[in-house]
Amino acid sequence: MSEIRPAKATILYTQDLHGDLHFIPKLGRMLWRLRTEDQNNFTVDLGGACDRSVWHCDATDGRSMLIALDGMNYAAANTEGLEENVRPHLSRALVGLRAVDRKYPAKLGPFQVVTQLPPDGISGGPVTLVLTPQDEARVDGSAVYFPHVPRYAIGRMRIVMFPKLEILSVETLPVPSDTLPHPTLTAMVEFIESEARQYAAKRKRAP
User: Fold this and answer.
1) Where are the beta strands (DSSP E) in the chain?
2) Cβ-based neighbours of 94, under 8 Å, separated by 6 or more
3) Does the N-terminal peptide bond of residue 105 adopt cis geometry, omega within 30 degrees of 0?
4) Which of 13, 21, 38, 198 is the most exposed place for a label (fewest CB within 10 A)?
């Protein structure tokens, strides 16, 4: 009889990017390297990707950074605080990224992705990733909670889902300042900024 092998996954995560589009090409380069180390991996953002005090976030109602995350193959992002009227635009702009908040959970492979568990919790069912950062990493029943990660760093959590849900390891990996920007992502950032300038210009012309 063959041995049952544990189902493992690696989750890469970021937080509080605050609209820093020019960090994206370096971040994407390091994410690409980390993804080559683990086959079964997912990348998520724990919130704070955009900041309305940043011009392109304001011009696009918070869409600019989500489009950048989508371009880096993020699977899901905590979008709490995003205005409801922005969602129809997101559905047309995003390819793979799931914009998650309390009202809009998402199914992601073997995971249910939420920003907050319902009051009565979730009994059974798939492993639930809670994209609201906590003081420490932990498993509570079928829910996985992520710790805070600094702005210019990537968190890496390795978990095993079978026969029992457990966290194997948690790391914080700073993105070195001398990381070479990914040229494709540099071009993507230029495109996003160009689109944001057009949105800003339309707002100025609006009566």
Assistant:
1) 8-14, 41-45, 76-78, 98-100, 106-108, 111-114, 127-134, 138-140, 143-147, 153-160, 166-174
2) 66, 67, 70
3) no
4) 198
CA distance to 48, 86, 164, 180, 192, per residue, from 92 (Å): 22, 11, 38, 31, 15
* pLDDT above 70: percentage of residues in the chain: 93
Note the pLDDT tens digit of each residue in 162-207: 888 999 999 999 999 999 999 999 999 999 999 999 989 988 776 6
Q: Which CATH architecture has domain 8-205?
A: 4-Layer Sandwich (3.60)
Sorting pLDDT into bands at 50, 70 and 90, what band is 2? Answer: very low
Structure tokens at 38: 């683990």
Burial environment of residue 44 by CB neighbours within 10 A (0 to 12, 13 to 18, 19 or more): buried
Predicted TM-score of the model (pTM): 0.92
